[in-house]
């Protein structure tokens, strides 16, 4: 439901007006937000706003192009897990939103949260920037230090390479994911990749993901969410894969040739006319870190990446930073090779290099994240450590 704000005809506006006159802060006995808000599934004209309350409660969300934060209003039913889709938004526009919750003691409501976000740009505006990192879900001091450095940026979105929560349990997700990135999550959408730990430490239950992950995240309906999907920003398409099948995850989506995920990937790699094509996955295709390479994965995916001219592959799993030279079929190839970037130093215990390969350009066992900026046919990536120092730079021109 979306209502145009009208102080005479809109009953919700009357409720909120009464609240604003009578309520200051969170009144005693009122429902409270205990997780979020967090943004997911951003496009040029929509976003999903999610949050968790301490009790089942209705919630009101007003929004509009900034500074008209109460141009529209929508209602969430009486639940703890709120997922509110905002549709018909203006592209490349800063919007603001306010969340109102009822006071269980009185008949009033109060403003529980207020923040802003910016919608994506279309292909006619081929410039954007984003943050990328992975393997963060430890709750460690280093994870918090990295989060503080990332908050200094104003990205259009954030990409996570997987292992958001070490044991995969929703009970641990606040400390290991939602709290460290609370400020960013309320303003920028996160696009998540499933890692092996997100399937649970022992991968023992088919229900694990359904109980600990799927109910709490919203993903684009451009694949089989949350396992694999794609999203667009500017003149780029991002393919997010579930590669945990190759790592032995019993309930992960198969990715052999001829499987549903493989056919989906080939179809949309071949169809997209975007200037930039990026792939995001957890288990690395090329790595000299502790886990190394899963040969079956490389022989399956690399030919597709080569055939459809993928520009960069972002990967995690190994807790280090690594950038390859352009590489093809296990050999450096500056003409036809693809650069693979491991961004697995988000907060877990670091790994050291286990092998030397000619195609490995740079390897650093440090905590880090990457900031990537696209301006038409130019890409610049700067990688930062937890002290905010640049540890590597990559430039690509098409």
Give structural notes.
With 398 residues, this protein is α+β, with helices and mostly antiparallel strands. It has two domains: 3-118, Sandwich (Immunoglobulin-like); 127-397, Purple Acid Phosphatase, chain A, domain 2, CATH 3.60.21.10. It is 16% helix and 35% strand. It has helices at residues 11-22, 141-150, 170-178, 182-185, 208-212, 260-271, 295-307; strands at residues 3-4, 33-40, 47-65, 72-86, 94-102, 109-118, 127-133, 157-160, 190-192, 229-233, 236-240, 276-280, 312-315, 321-324, 327-328, 331-332, 339-343, 360-364, 368-375, 378-385, 390-397. Strands 10-11-12-13-17-14-18 form a seven-stranded mixed sheet, with no helix packed on it. Strands 1, 2, 3, 4, 5 and 6 form a six-stranded antiparallel sheet that branches. The radius of gyration is 22 Å and the shape is globular.
Give the secondary structure arrangement, pairings included.
Blueprint: E1 3-4, H1 11-22, E2 33-40, E3 47-65, E4 72-86, E5 94-102, E6 109-118, E7 127-133, H2 141-150, E8 157-160, H3 170-178, H4 182-185, E9 190-192, H5 208-212, E10 229-233, E11 236-240, H6 260-271, E12 276-280, H7 295-307, E13 312-315, E14 321-324, E15 327-328, E16 331-332, E17 339-343, E18 360-364, E19 368-375, E20 378-385, E21 390-397
Parallel strand pairs: 7-8, 8-9, 11-12, 12-13, 13-17
Antiparallel strand pairs: 1-4, 2-3, 3-4, 3-5, 5-6, 7-19, 10-11, 14-17, 14-18, 15-16, 19-20, 20-21
């Amino acid at each position: 439901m979306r209502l145009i704000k009208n102080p005479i005809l809109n009953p919700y506006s009357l409720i909120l007006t009464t609240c604003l006159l009578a309520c200051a802060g969170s009144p005693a006995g009122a429902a409270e937000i205990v997780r979020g808000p967090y943004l997911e599934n951003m496009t040029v004209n929509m976003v999903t706003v999610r949050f968790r309350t301490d009790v089942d409660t209705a919630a009101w969300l007003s929004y509009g192009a900034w500074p008209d934060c109460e141009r529209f209003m929508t209602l969430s039913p009486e639940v703890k897990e709120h997922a509110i889709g905002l549709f018909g938004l203006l592209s490349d526009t800063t919007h603001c939103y306010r969340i109102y919750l009822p006071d269980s003691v009185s008949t009033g409501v109060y403003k529980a949260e207020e923040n802003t976000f910016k919608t994506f740009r279309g292909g006619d505006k081929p410039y954007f920037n984003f943050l990328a990192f992975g393997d963060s879900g430890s709750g460690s001091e280093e994870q918090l230090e990295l989060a503080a450095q990332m908050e200094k940026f104003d990205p259009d979105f954030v990409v996570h390479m997987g292992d958001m929560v070490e044991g995969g349990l929703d009970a641990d997700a606040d400390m290991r994911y939602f709290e460290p990135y609370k400020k960013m999550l309320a303003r920028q959408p996160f696009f998540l990749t499933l890692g092996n730990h997100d399937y649970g430490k022992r991968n023992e239950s088919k229900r694990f993901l359904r109980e600990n992950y799927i109910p709490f995240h919203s993903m684009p309906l451009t694949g089989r969410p949350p396992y694999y999907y794609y999203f667009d920003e500017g003149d780029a398409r991002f393919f997010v894969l579930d590669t945990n099948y190759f790592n032995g995850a019993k309930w992960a989506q198969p990715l052999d040739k001829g499987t549903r995920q493989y056919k989906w990937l080939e179809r949309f790699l071949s169809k997209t006319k975007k200037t930039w094509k990026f792939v995001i996955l957890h288990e690395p295709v090329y790595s000299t870190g502790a886990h190394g390479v899963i040969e079956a994965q490389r022989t399956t995916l690399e030919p597709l990446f080569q055939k459809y001219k993928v520009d960069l592959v972002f990967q995690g799993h190994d807790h280090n930073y690594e950038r390859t030279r352009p590489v093809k079929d296990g050999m450096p190839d500056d003409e036809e090779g693809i650069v693979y970037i491991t961004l697995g130093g988000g907060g877990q215990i670091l790994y050291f290099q286990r092998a030397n390969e000619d195609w490995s350009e740079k390897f650093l066992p440090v905590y880090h994240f990457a900031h990537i900026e696209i301006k038409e046919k130019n890409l610049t990536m700067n990688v930062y450590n937890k002290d905010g120092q640049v540890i590597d730079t990559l430039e690509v021109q098409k």
